[in-house]
Structure formats: structure tokens, C-alpha cells
Amino acid sequence: MTVIDGRWPFAGREGDVRDAMTVLAAEAGHGVVLVGPSGVGKTIIAQQVLAALSRHFDHIYLRGSAAHSTTPYGALNVLLAELDEDTARSPLLVLSALQRKFAGATAKRPTLMHIDGVEDIDELSATVIAHLARVGAVRLLVTCEDLLRAPGEFFDLWKDGVLERFDIHPLTLAAATELLTAAFGAPVSRSAAQELWSASGGNPKYLQMATKADVVSGHLFSRDGVWVTQDAPRPDFGRSVTDGTATTLAALPPDDRAAVEVLAVSGSLPVVVLLKAVPAATVDALQSDGVITVDVGAAPLVRLTYGVFADVVRAQLLSGAGREALRTVAGLRDEPEVPVQGRMTLALWALDNADAPTAAELVGLAHLANDHRIEGAARRLLDAVPADDFGSTAVVERTRQLWIEGHLAEALGTVEALLADDELSLGDWVDARLLAARLRVRTHGRERGTEDLLHDVTSRLDGEAEDDVVLELRGRTDVVRLELDVFEGRFEKVAARVPELLATWAEDTRWNIRIRSLVSVVDATLGSQEQGVAVARTVTSRLVNSPSDPLDREAAIARLYECLFLAGHWNECFDLATDEGSRFDGRLFGGSPCEFAEGVLLAYLGRSGQALEKLLPAISQFRIRDRHGFLPLAEAAAAYAEVLESDPEAAEDHLQAIDLNGRRYSWHLREAVRYFSLLAEAWLDTPGRIATEFMEHALELGARGYRGAELFFLSQSVQLGRHEAAELLAATAAAADGPLADLAAGFAEGLATRDPGALKAVALLAVDAGNHNLAGDIAALSIEHLSDNDDPMIRVHAEQILRKTSTPARRNVRRKLLSERERAIARMVARGVPNKEIAQQEHISPRTVEGHVHQIMSKLGLSSRKQLSLVFGQQQ
Q: What pLDDT is stored for residue 192 in this prediction?
């Protein structure tokens, strides 16, 4: 059961509560004013503050009311009821009486006055409250939407420093996810959380409305114990949740309501376009009230502040003024400043209102919808194209739509129907073959035909006269050919072709940029990791800081992530995935794909508990739809994380769930699946055998010149016990570059020289890089190679690393390394037996017992006797 129908838990606002409490609890504190729009959470923050301070303050609650805003002392009725009539009639006596009431008794606890809705406090009450705050008779906790609309006395209190202002902002994605998780009592996938966060604008009130609506509609549901989102666009709200907001809508003046209705249907619009349908004063008023937001850019765009409100408005019957304004705006949908989403929604609205766009416009908009990955839009637009007008261009877009939605087999069947038609236009003829090639390479048993298709395209383009169309198609073909070579792992071929291709396309062309973005990952795989990172950074920076296709930008960022991963810049890699996962407008890799990227990285680094927090929700979401083909890798990474958490049964389940047969996957993904699967099996099976498999595969990669990939497998082989390969690891590291290569080189040198100090130093570097897996293994080897002549601080530092990088599985392995005496002592410690008694039973000194306990905790990677008690208490 969930609490979505009742009062939600408090989560995601702890920092705001702490800040307000600090001010109010300070000796010189006078008060706090919490400012923010309706529904943002001011009142619940105030309630949490009051509850936390209840032992130190008496509490009085006052609320402004429109009904009493013109009544003298209307807000103070509760307090004035105790005064006699003569006192109540004199403002000066009222002030004196209340000041004596709150400040008279020295033994009395101070009073904390909570004032809600301060905008509607009458002037006399405001004067009294302000005076009481200034003289220190009370402390104030004020909540309001707009301090400028509050009585002037409160504004002056803030200006004079009596009230400290805290602006309460909408929830971040992380805070919204925390709140949803608390409300459901279960994890929520990043995709589901991001949808709800985007729809609500981070406003807790609208977040609760959106969540309830999505659960009722079935769009949001539980799978594998995780709340995930349905494989479809979010539905508009039904009547069941619109009544409250409908009242607000009905109260708006006609022009205001018309503007709101236009934006509810269209989404963001350029201000200049909206002003052709509604008065400027209307836009100003709605912006002032927080109903609409203007996003400043090259062409300022206006939108409804909360997507949920747009859903509610669309569920109502549009007003006459709203319909007329929409007709005006719909007629302007081809204006260049109108966003793609707005063009499509306005075209569909026109279609539904007997003003059908042409078939050509519908297909053109479907093309844009596919380009921009706007969920569900291309399907709706293409469904509206009459059958007689559904030509080859429409078939191409239908193919792209099916592929984007993850229906590869249906997409391939659709486009292949065009391949036998020689009457197609040149553009459709080429696009059909390029699409078919990209789909065949992802389909088992069909991949061999891709080269023939690309050859046909190249031959035909070579025979065409050069013009802008042919250049466009030639660039597209060059990029697809490279993309397919990278997909198949033919990196030597890519490296050989790239110089010629880059010379063909000028540096400022999008084809040059796309080629360099693809090649960055090839460089990193071949061992030039830092070069790959540098190229990927340059491409990404260029796309971010200039007008470009948003999907080009996202694809470039994904490749930058790969390069950073391969090079060993893991902290930066994690920050990049986290930042991208917090964007509202991510089309390719927003939501669960970013959560998956974080989880895979954390699993590789050996941070298993954190990894599972990311991977398990992502896996549940991918099981609904895996449009990117990430599920096998997510399962493999989760299997490794589960064994590190000492859950072999869960690890086996994930390994058995890996399916590489349903479709063909890229070389990089297949290699990553193999890596994590072998790591998991190393803990489930015989490590020596798996170490050999790692070694053999590393040698295969090295023979092909794939030094960057070889380094991962070879290092892991050595970590699993193939120490005789240290010299080979050093050679591979020398042929590569980047932080991972540096760590591998130091690891190999310390191992070859059996130098515990050098190994400890490399382990510390691995900790700084965030790699607990590598750091823990090297630290253990450092201790293993210690002699009586070595600096004793090496052991101390190595043991600290072991404790920091410890996981349940690693602790269990180290437990097996305990001597019989150490096991006996550990069991007694777990039972709470004092050192003195243990010493008597073992016939040793208490100091020796303490040394044994320290050694036991070091071997197990523990930091306290309590942890030792838990480990042995669970395993006796």
C-alpha cells in the first residue's frame, strides 16, 4: 500500500528545515520568512521546524484570511479574546498587554509565532506582530507566496534584518525521487521519477497530483518491487483529479484563461507568437502570479509553470476565447521560432478541430518528432496521414518511429518493403537502404547484407551530379558506415578510413563533428584514451555552446562518458552521468539510461551497494521497454554487485536473465557484458579458472591492438591471482595512457618488485580515483608482501584502505583467512566477552588479545567491534 491518497511523508527538504531551525534557535534570532509559490512545501517545512523546536518554544499559530483582512486585529482574535473590552479598544494598550503576555515571565519559554498566509494579515495585526518581533517578545516563523504583497511591516522586518528570508525552491530531481520513494515505500525508477518531476515542475503539491493520476490510470505501476512508468506517453488527467484546479481555471478572466488554454495545448511558445492571440497585460499578469514562466533565450519562450496544470486544463472544455486564440496561434505554427513540440501539438489540435494539416506537413512533422525523440508524437502524426497519401517518405518515417520505440523487427519489415521500388526519389531510396543497413546489423542472421546495401548507396551517389542534396546524402552515408564499423568492433578499419573522411568534410560541418565524436571512442578503445577524451570534450563543448541538433549533443555526451570510463576518469564520468540525468530535456539518455550508466560505473568500481540502488530500478524499467539495448549489461553489472553483497542467488538470477540472442548488440556492450559476467562468476566459481579466461581474452584483444579494452581484462586477471602476468600488464599499460593506465603500471611495478610500500601507494591512488575494486585488491597484496623489515605504517594505511573498500563478500573471503585462534577470539568478541576474560581463556595477555582483534578486523575490512559482532553473529 502507498500513501498517495493521504498525507505524504516529509522528505527531500531536510536542509530547509535545518536552516530555519538554526536561525530561530540562535540566541539573537528574531524570525524567519519562508517565501515560495503555492504548493512548494512552505507549510510542511514550517510544521517540521515547529515540531523540532517544540521542547524549547511555546507555539502560537495565526493565519491570514481574506475574510478578515479588512477587520482591525482580525488575525489576532485568538489573543485578544483574553483582554478586557477597554484594553482591546486602545492600540497602545493592546501592544502593552501582548508585550507583557509574551515577555513578562522570565521562567516562561519563549514564544514562536507561526504566521501563515501573511499577505492577508490586516494592517493593525501586522503592526502589533512586527512590534512584538522587534522588541524580542516573540520569534516569528512566517510563510508567504510574495513578500511584496504582504503588509509593509513584514517587508520592513526582512529589510531591517529582523526576519531572515529563505526562498523555498521546487524540489530537485533527487529530492523528488526521495519523496516518491518515501511515499511508495519502494524504489522508483529514474524514468518514472523524471516524468513526474518534469510534469510537476518540482512542486510537491503538483507532484502528488501527478503521481495519483498516473497510478489511477495505470501509467505508473509496480514491477519487481520497483515503481516504473508505462511504455507510452503520460495520459492527460482524468476528471477525478481535476476538480480543485478547475475552480482556479474558472475564476480566471477570459483573456487569462484563453492564454492558459493556448499554452496548455501548445506547450512552449515564443512570446511574440502568443502576443498575437492575447493582450500583453494578460501575459504580464500571469507571469507575475507564477502561472506562466518565460524562458529567456535567443527567442524568449513562454510556458505554463507546471505541466500538471496543463494536463488539468486540457481535461476541461475549452472556452470560446481559448478556442479562438488557439486558431490564431495554430495558424502561426510554421513561424521559425515555434519549438518543434509546439508545431506538432498545434497541428494535431488543428487536425482534431476540422482544420487538417496537409499530408506533407504531417509527414514533415513526424520527421521532426523522430529527430527530437518526442514520445508518441510521430506515431500520432503518421496515423493521421490518409492512406492514399502514405508514400515512401511516410514509410521511412514510420520505420524510424518503430525503431525509436524499440520495435526492430517490425521496423525492418516496414523499410524492406521499399527496397524493391526503383521509382523512389533519390533521398527516399538512400534513406531506405541506410535504415535497412542499420536495422539488419542489429538483427541476428541479417547482418551480412549490410555491406551490400552501403555499397549500392555509395555507387549510386558516385554517379549523381554534386549538389546540396547529394552532399547531404553522402555525409549521412559516411557517418552510417562508420557507425556500423564501430558497432561491429572493426576499429582498425575505422582508424584507416578516418583521415580521408575528415579531409573530405570541413571542420565546421556536422559530418566532421559526428565523425570525430564516433572516433573518440575508437581512440580510447585502441589505447589512446587521453586523445579520445580530448576529442570527445572538444566535440561536446562545441555542440553545447552553439546551435546544434540536441540529439547530436546527447550522443556526443554519451561518447564522452565512454571515453572517460575507458581512460579512468571515473569521478568525472560519474558527475557527467548524474548531471545529464538531472536534465528536464534529455531525449536520448535521460531518466533510467542515466541511472543505468551510474550503476554500471559504480559496479565496476566495486561500490556494490550504491550500484544496486541504481541498477535494480533501471532493470525493472528496462524490462518494460529496452529501446537502447542496455538490459543485458544492466543484468551483468547487477550480478557482479550482488555477489559483492553476498547474495549469490540474486547474482545467478541476473546472470540467467542475460539475453544476447533476441537482437544483435554492439561490440562494446558485448565486451562489457562478458567482463561483468566473468567477474560475477569469479566469485561464484573457481577464481583461478576465471582469471585464465580474463587472461586469454586480454591476449585476443591485444593481438588486435585494442589496448584500451585489453587493459581492463588483463588487470582483472592479475587481480584474480595471475601475478606472473605483471610484466605483460606493465607493457600493456605503457602502450596506453590515462589514469587507468597509470594505475595499472604502478600496480604491475609494485607486484613485480614485491614492494608493499609501492603497492600501498598505488592503492591510495585508486581510492582517490573512486575505484574500490582495484584499491582493495592492491591493498590486500601490499599486506601480503609485508616483511618484518618494512615500515609498520604501510600495514596501517593498507588496512584503512581495506576497511574503506570493504564489501560483504570481501569480508567473508577475508574471514576464511583467519587462524583458528583468531576465529575463537572473534566469536567471543561477537558474544561481548571482555578482553580480560578472553585473555584468561586463551592464556595470553589482554594486550595480545587487543592485537588479535585489530588483526581480525583488518583481515575482514571492518572498522569497529560492533561490525565484527554483526559479521560473526550472523554466521555462527
A: 93
